[in-house]
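Practice set, problem 2.
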Amino acid sequence: MNAQATQQPSPIYTTSAIWHEVPDAKAYQVLQLSEFLNTKIDLKSFGDGLARIWFVAIIMQPEDKIHSNKIVFHRKTNVLEVYWRMDYERVMAATIPEFKAYLAAFFVEVLKDALEKKKVKGFDVDGFIVSIGKVLKEWIHLV
């Protein structure tokens, strides 16, 4: 899965690969996540080692074996791509507020893990993760 050719110009871009039964309202929340983050977080303030984050929340049935977790860091462009599976049953059972809380926690945890594994130089990973966590507390409570 290489989404390089379709990346959006925003520094943080979130989207989803979803099973057709996942409600549109939940897919919309994934898109809203990046819109909110881009108004609150400036990637450049954490260094020049990371220019863009491309995050794909995979919401597929457990028996789906095509979509798998993947982390790619493009050193030439400083773009981090993260494709990660959410718990399908949890997503389907959640209300929108519960889903937002799960998505926010999931996003922080997956990004933290991805940035630890890929060792991005010239970027304050710890400061970034703390900042993301703080602003997402506000996002969770937006209606």
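Problem 2, part (b): a different protein.
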Amino acid sequence: MTGVLVKISSVLTKIEEYIMAILMGALTIIMITAVIYRYFLKDPITWAGEVSIFLLIWTSFIGGSWGLKYGTQASVTFLVDAVADDKKRWIRMAQDIIMLLFLGILIAYSVKWMMLPSMLIQKSSALQLPMWIPYSAVPVGLLFAFVHILTHLVTRIMKKEELFLKKPKGGEGK
């Protein structure tokens, strides 16, 4: 089971990396183009701000999930640092369980929120894009994060943390 979860998490990570690269590239191009059109051509692009916000939302949720896999978020670790090494594993497993419960609740409520009739008919102001598309970043990002944390927990239980918790290329991690 550990191997399957690690493989799924690794595939999700690759997907997240591609999505983030595409979204950040698109965001950069749109923002530069919007600035050029607004300040140099005196003809603002009306939809650029809306699209930029949607891209940033998606990037934030996907990036947050990616960061959870590698533990790159800022954290306060004085409690974990104060206990003996053999107890750290148990504290981290408790953290994973609490995080899974929290993510599970958030996923359930975000899906319920997305299925509201008012949400399904709502459209964005500039593009008339159905709002469920940008809002779906919430359950998708949380679901990806859930898979990563579940994989953390299972690898810790099986004492195979080295299979999963590797440093990302070019970044800091566990």
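Answer key, part (b): The chain is about 75% helix and 0% strand. The CA atoms of residues 60 and 141 lie 8 Å apart.
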